[in-house]
Amino acid sequence: EEYIAIAILRLVEMEKAVVEGAGAAGLAAILQGLLPELKGK
């Protein structure tokens, strides 16, 4: 849940997009390092 909150905040700050937790789950997974195949993309 911590990474979901961070992802929501990043989306608001950088993309000016307000999303719910489910909408930020993908970004949260990337931020947490759960998708190493996407690193650097």
UniProtKB/TrEMBL annotation:
Q: Which InterPro entries match?
A: TrpB-like_PALP_sf (IPR036052)
Q: What is this protein called?
A: Uncharacterized protein
Organism of origin:
Rotaria magnacalcarata
Highest lineage ranks of the organism?
Eukaryota, Metazoa, Spiralia, Gnathifera, Rotifera
